[in-house]
Amino acid sequence: MTQQPDQRDEELLAVPVAALHPSLEALLMVADQPLDATVLAAATGYPAEEVVEALHALAAEYAEQARGFELRNVASGWRYYTREEYAAVVEAFVLEGQQARLTQAALETLAVVAYKQPVSRARVSAIRGVNVDGVMRTLLTRGLVEEAGRDGEHGATLYRTTGYFLERIGVQSLDELPELAPYLPDMDDLDDELSEMLAGPTAPPAAAQAGEPS
User: Fold this and answer.
1) pLDDT exceeds 80 at position 212
2) Less Cβ around it within 10 Å: N or C end of the chain?
């Protein structure tokens, strides 16, 4: 006969019986990718079947309470997602501040991408002399740059400017950009020009989609 959780020696469990649900919530909250039941079982010390039962119970609880998020079992595991009914709220939050002027660091990074594309983050960082990970995330969020495949030699993700970038600065193609590439990374003139071009009120056409991971 299979023993129930309260019949087992709790010292053998990674977390006590009463804490299984919140423990699963904590693990899923910090994960940056879906987690399958086997991984969650190993982390909590519970059999996989009991973990699956607990996950289904949590999902049902969130649905019954109409929470702003839901717990889904996707192909590669369990993960939190925003609920579709609140897509408008998520979209407004993501787009908030899109009309703000870009910082000096963002302008310089955008200029490097524009003239050196397709280019990796490491290459942009080398040209600017600073880490650009945070700035690149900002440019991606604002729809000004996008992924453009991978470097065949190193496998690094490459980036390029978007059609929205061309729209914002008022040109039809990259060929119309000022001839400043030979002067990189001395880009003060380009920074000023891009700052003026990108200061308009237009918001990017792409919006946050419901169901994106929280």
Assistant:
1) no
2) N
153 in Cβ contact with 141 (< 8 Å): no
Nearest to 14, CA basis, from 3, 33, 27, 31: 27
Rounded to whole angstroms, the Cα distance separating 132 from 192 reads: 20
CB-side neighbour CA atoms (13 Å) of 104: 6
- Residue range 5-86 forms a domain whose CATH class is mainly alpha
DSSP letter string over 15-72?
A: S-GGGHHHHHHHHHHH-SS-B-HHHHHHHHTS-HHHHHHHHHHHHHHHHHTT-SEEEE
Residue 147 · residue 157 · CB < 8 Å: yes
Whole-number Å distance between alpha carbons of 45 and 41: 6
Stretch among 21-30, 53-62, 89-98, 113-122 having the lowest mean pLDDT: 89-98
Q: What CATH number was assigned to the domain covering residues 97-197?
A: 1.10.10.10
- For CATH 1.10.10.10, list the domain ranges present in the chain: 5-86, 97-197
The string of DSSP letters for 134-194 reads HHHHHHHHTTSEEEEEE-TTT-PEEEEE-HHHHHHHT-SSGGGS-S-GGGTT--HHHHHHH
Distance CA 19, CA 105 (A): 45
- Region 39-48: what's the mean pLDDT? 93
